[in-house]
Specification:
Blueprint (H helix, E strand, L loop, with lengths): L3 E6 L4 E4 L6 H5 L16 H6 L12 E2 L6 E3 L2 E3 L2 E11 L37 E5 L17 E6 L2 E11 L6 E3 H6 L11 E10 L2 E3 L5 H18 L1
Parallel strand pairs: 1-12, 6-10, 7-9
Antiparallel strand pairs: 1-2, 3-4, 5-6, 6-11, 7-10, 8-9, 8-11
């Protein structure tokens, strides 16, 4: 399947969908890119959650939300998407910033699995991104049509935040997103004490890619279109 992409036009400074790579339903649902905040676009959190009430498991086993916890979280499949329901641990990895550094986060790493257009690591304080489990015996994200820049609808507390896949973590744990994602969803973004213990739904739109990966406008605009397509197809 062709990758569904969104590229930013430097001439106009606006996010544009690559029409040739998107189905008509997504192209017809294009709306302007909003500010970087949760609840973006016409698709409501309740509409997305209504589509993920049951799970057709696609992972070969279940994941832990934290090391030592019971393995209870499957990766589930729908038309054009995979999803899971878990907690949200705050990831500060990437470029050091005032909020994300080795003093504010004892687990800080100055790199991310996927890099921005200039090959620098992502900025967790500014870029809403999601961490997916590294490829392993339970599930291989690459084989599932997921890669760096894949668009994710993160749903929590009646809010929707469109993010990108930006990093990978241990192959047996799940439920992690960047400082910017947590903040946009109204959570405490502190990597030591913040996040959410449960109630977070991650819907990854397969074979999609926001370009450049660090542009929240690109992710939000493409996410809005793909969310409408997701509702129509499931």
């Amino acid at each position: 399947m062709r990758t569904r992409t969104l590229a930013l036009s430097t001439a106009f400074g606006a996010a544009l969908l690559t029409a040739a790579a998107l189905p008509a339903t997504a192209r017809d649902g294009l709306v302007a890119a909003p500010p970087a905040r949760a609840d973006e676009g016409p698709v409501r959190a309740a509409e997305l959650l209504a589509k993920v009430t049951s799970c057709s498991q696609v992972s070969r086993g279940k994941f832990r939300t934290d090391p030592g916890a019971a393995a209870t979280v499957p990766v589930c499949g729908l038309n054009g998407a995979v999803f899971w329901k878990a907690d949200l641990d705050v990831d500060c990895d990437g470029q050091p910033t005032a909020a994300c550094n080795n003093k504010t986060d004892p687990w800080f790493q100055p790199d991310t699995r996927f890099h921005q257009a200039n090959d620098k690591p992502l900025n967790a304080e500014k870029v809403p991104y999601v961490v997916v489990p590294g490829a392993g015996s339970l599930w291989d994200y690459g084989s599932a049509g997921v890669t760096g820049g894949t668009v994710v609808a993160v749903v929590y507390d009646n809010k929707v935040e469109y993010a990108v896949v930006g990093d990978t973590g241990p192959s047996t744990t799940i439920g992690e997103a960047s400082y910017a994602t947590a903040k946009a969803l109204g959570m405490n973004p502190d990597p030591r004490t913040g996040g959410a213990e449960s109630g977070v739904t991650y819907i990854l739109f397969q074979h999609s890619q926001a370009t450049p990966i660090e542009s929240h406008g690109a992710a939000a605009t493409l996410g809005q279109a793909l969310a409408q397509e997701f509702l129509a197809d499931n």
